[in-house]
Amino acid sequence: MKLFEEALINHKKEELEEKCVDFFNFFEFIAVLWKLKQLQIKEIKYMFEYYIKMLDNNPYTRHYLEENGFENLLDLIGEIKK
Question: Which pTM was predicted?
Fold first, then answer.
């Protein structure tokens, strides 16, 4: 958890932050496909539910998503939690 805090909140671990942003961008893309009705929520849950829930369970990750414009991914997280 300390590494996530240093990377995502304090921006002291640039390489880890970049890897996390790549990961977030992938799921932002999945969220856009969902919003465009190219993927159904059922399909997303089958493939990625665990990973999406883990994004939401980490307070540093959640904060980063909220502060850096990952609105589609946040909407998808909300839908997965239903």
Answer: 0.88
